[in-house]
Amino acid sequence: MDMIPLVKPYLPPEEKLMDRLKNILYSGYISEGEAVYAFEDELAKLIGNPYCLSVNAGTAALHIALMLIGAGKGDEVISTALTAEPTNTTIALTGAKVVFADVDIHTGLIDPESIESLINEKTKAIMIVHYAGMVCDMDNINLISKKYNVPVIEDAAHAFMSKYNGAFIGNNSAYTCFSFQAIKHLTTIDGGLLCLKNEEEYNRAKKLRWFGLDKKIPRLQNNIIEAGYKYHMNNVNATVGLVQLECLADNVQKYVENGKYYDGALENVQGLSLIPYYNNTEPSYWLYTIKVERRDDFIRKLAENGIAASPLHLRSDRHAVFASRRTLSNLDVFYKAFVHIPCGWWLTKEEREKIVQVIKKGW
Ligand SMILES: *Cc1c(COP(=O)(O)O)cnc(C)c1O
């Protein structure tokens, strides 16, 4: 039996994509150029933030954000363990120490009170993750960021087109990082986006994504002041991105429709709790997350019916590289109970109804 998967890359229909792709491949200009700038313009318009900088991976966006902040040896970055690995490996790469805050026991998202209890003079940044597309408690996180003057990096790899205060994520904190990796809401095969809040940091980040060179100045007259990486996006990936943006109704919006369907259809199911959303937030449901009793039985029951279900990510504090011995008692509870069910663009109406029926029969 074919399983209904948890993740699956969306690619636009051949007739929409292949001519555009072929044109750019044989255009003689496949590196960073007009297609990249057009993609950035479209994203800036969609998100509503003019300071949108494309990069070749979400990981690169996180790394540049940390470089802009100046995180390094002797510094601490407060983060969460409930995430994919790059959130925290990028912090480790700068030399800064990852300090894991606990999560809100109800949502699995980083807990503002725990963040505040960990802030000290070494704290360089607060890294938060809109896990599975659910938006963190931004009202309280913003207050803490202001109170202690510590910048927030939003890892929004799962949260493209999620909302806070009615605006798309990418307009709130000093740094917001998106991923366009294969299985994310919108894929450019690989790619990422860094959203900033001012022109100065935007210009510095632009150099950091290309060795430290200034693209506006001829190569022979350039003078690198700060060494950067090779993190820019190329015209081929950007062309895929431009076509993907024409397909939002078939990719991102499908996740949202399916997520809203589950929000209603899975209310009041014995042994299952829905996750509440914070004030002023709207998820974009990259994964649909629930808490269940007897999770192994739940996963087995769904598998028997051809439906994938899984917690998907190993908590980051279990990796030796972070050498964390902090107790995260809320995460311990959440981590035992949470599970994702399929929610993405590939689900048919019949399939999502079948998933709800299987769950309602019990496990
Ligand atoms: C996918 C992902 C990233 C990194 O994205 P890449 O584009 O693969 O580098 C970062 N954080 C989280 C939570 C992710 O899921």
Q: Secondary-structure blueprint of this entry?
A:
Layout: H1 14-25, H2 34-47, E1 52-55, H3 58-69, E2 76-79, H4 86-94, E3 97-100, H5 112-118, E4 123-129, H6 138-148, E5 152-155, E6 163-164, E7 167-168, E8 175-179, E9 192-195, H7 199-208, H8 235-245, H9 252-265, E10 272-274, E11 281-282, E12 288-292, H10 295-304, H11 329-337, E13 338-341, H12 349-360
Helix pairs in contact: 1-8, 2-8, 3-4
Tell me what you see in this structure.
The chain folds into two domains: 14-243, Type I PLP-dependent aspartate aminotransferase-like (Major domain) (Aspartate Aminotransferase, domain 2), CATH 3.40.640.10; 247-360, Aspartate Aminotransferase, domain 1 (Alpha-Beta Complex), CATH 3.90.1150. It is 36% helix and 14% strand. The chain contains twelve helices and 13 strands. Helix 3 (58-69) runs parallel beside helix 4 (86-94). The longest helix has 14 residues, at 34-47. It is globular. The structure holds pyridoxal-5'-phosphate. Pyridoxal-5'-phosphate is lined by residues 57-59, 83-84, 86-87, 129, 155, 157-158, 179, 181, 192.
